[in-house]
Amino acid sequence: MERCDTLIRGATVIDGTGAPATPADVSLVAGRIAAVRPPGALDAWRAETVHDAAGLVLAPGFVDVHTHDDTTVIRAPEMWPKLSQGVTTVVVGNCGISAAPVRLRGDPPDPMNLLGRAGDFRYPTFASYRDAVTRARPAVNVAALVGHTALRANHLDRLDRPATSAEISAMRDELRDALARGALGLSTGLAYANARAAPTEEVVALAEPLAAAGALYATHLRSEFAEILDALDEAVRIGRHARVPVAVSHLKCAGPDNWGRSEEVLATLDAARASHPVGWDCYPYAAGSSTLDVGQVDPRVEITITWSEPHPEASGRSLAHVAAGWGTTLVDAAHRLQPAGAIYHSIAEHDMRRILRHPATVVGSDGLPNDPRPHPRLWGTFPRVLGRYCRDERLFSLEDAVHRMTALPARRFGLAERGVVREGHWADLVLFDPATVRDVATFDDPQRAAEGIAAVWVNGVLSSRDQQPTGARGGRFVERGPIDGAGY
Q1: The model's pTM
Q2: Among residues 115, 84, 78, 80, which one has the least CA distance to residue 100?
């Protein structure tokens, strides 16, 4: 008689590959999927725990390819904002900012302050960060990029200038060490002030070690506004020179003057993809969030302050209301609030939908867990795709939606043996009700768990049931595996 740790009976399995849903029973042994068989075929197995999944979909756990959970996976390893929506793996180190390798000489530079305060950056080497994740035993798996801005902060005396050849060499050495210890690749955030001074040539030189490691280049473009096509060209040129895949972060057409350009942007990316592996992620909201950037202040764009160090009372208020109360301009108010965080309602819904439904788009939350009043994407991204945009608005089939949140991102980011319900793969799984799954987090009330997620397993460990954490934490650090260029 066969034995298993867990038997999930009567599920409708959507395996992540895009194949049609099929009824099946699934058994788990020692953290992996042991069998996927027709209903009733595993009835003779003796299981320690049996779950009735009738009427529910069993899918691979969702892969959040764009997060800023770097320090949160250690400080708050329960990771409930992600676990509650079915996420089982997070990719950290995006937008050029990472928790490691970092050696601060003062306060973290913007936007590294999105990851925490100076005391949260305790990982001078990538190995020390990896060890800290292992000790923390987070509830989700963690895979990590190395941030360009973090490397610059380690080796440059100031960040408003290009790096010298000696500094680039030192950054390359540090990047090579991280790649040897399992880092996924290099990320940049060239739109931010502390990386903007880096010319293309600096990034090209820094990216050169990636190919030998089989790694990738991920980028928050130098511009998501009027110059977006030039920024895309720069990103692809860097990837071509380095001979590595390119992952464009949170693709959008930002700013009212840029609305309606998504078709042009996607056509440009499709042309690039014809000869080089290029992919991108998108969050399902018509608003972004980051630190407060005076350069993005526009009277046509609603901007909500989420935090401000000198004026914490401004949290939750619009920049326009703050400025009016002070009797000053929007720009002056933004200067007075800094350092601060903000939500920018600067994206057209029709552009976001066009990008979201493109078959090459994968899903990333870009959530900010350290924000005291976060954008609702931190809690709602994946159920929002399943509920609002898949079930209610029918932008894509359920099988396609699951594919873009599981197998496709796992292939792109080198997450070996994850993202597919397949015998022998790691048992990262989510069980959800396709009729009721939905996001309930809002801009006014953003910290709310989604509905319709019945259970989540991480490496075979039941971590959430009936939207309550079990307290068990089965996550681990995930090393870079083979990155599948065909996944782009």
Answers
A1: 0.98
A2: 115
